[in-house]
Amino acid sequence: KLTSPALQPVITPELVQGRVHLKCSYSPASPEPPVQYRVLWSRLSSPGKREQVHHETTPQSFSYVEMDGANLRLGDTVFCTVTAFRRGTPEQQSLPEDSKGFYAGIKFLPESLEIAEDGKEHVLTVLSTVPIACPGQDDSCKITLQLSTEDLGSRVPGPPDIALSACRVDLRPEPCSGSRCAAARVAVTAVTDFAQDGHRGSRIRAQPLAPGDALWRAYTPGDVKVTVRDLPTGNCYSFTDPHIITFDGWRYDNYKIGTFLLSRSESRAFEVHVRQWDCGGHRSATACNCGVAAR
């Protein structure tokens, strides 16, 4: 075997002449005598199984492969395996070294969320691990993702238990840093539904919207699972003429006529007004709820 320092192959994304490529870089072995490298590119075809897509022998300390949409597509996890050998004596070779798997496509960070019905916003980052290429459209270059939510079959069927701050996000090209070539953010909030419906699961999906680049057309990114923890809810009441019971159980009567602030949150934009009119006539001073406004 050829003994040499560790090659440590690493995959990074790169644009070459406006087309998306992956570059496998590795540490050069000892320069004396001259060394060549055998580079094998593969993709994960099924869990634990790889499929070879390209191989070459080169004296360079790097190798490129194109994301052509056929051999390598968005959504693939790609590996490069490098072996060093001396020119003229290919039987004297180093042990093959694998890179870490490189996922080419859209990633969500975090990859899953667990949130509560407490009104708080949680930031979800949508990023592309490959460059966004738009030949001839440099000024308006972007990939638009349509976002949607879906209930994951909870015990109580209904609409998704989450809300997003935007239905679409734009991924605009930026210089690749590691495996981050474009990013956008969206806020996720649990829907406060005042129902004791247990912990519910939803998912967020992203779909490229009419992309100009053929590489993106047949690609559907993986989704994000969001678990919403149910929180106990409080109740308050205003009924009959009217009797009022507060969230913490205090009881009042309010026989007056007018418009009143029934409830206001100190932590979010939520309040309820009630309007009370005379409904007792001359015999008694009684008022009834005749209108309600909630924000």
UniProtKB/TrEMBL annotation:
Molecular function in Gene Ontology: signaling receptor binding
Keywords for this protein: Disulfide bond, Signal
VWFD domain span: 234-295
Highest taxon above the source species: Eukaryota
Tagged with keyword Signal: yes
Gene Ontology cellular-component annotations: cell surface; extracellular region
Protein name from the UniProt record: VWDE protein
Organism: Myiagra hebetior
Higher taxonomy: Eukaryota, Metazoa, Chordata, Craniata, Vertebrata
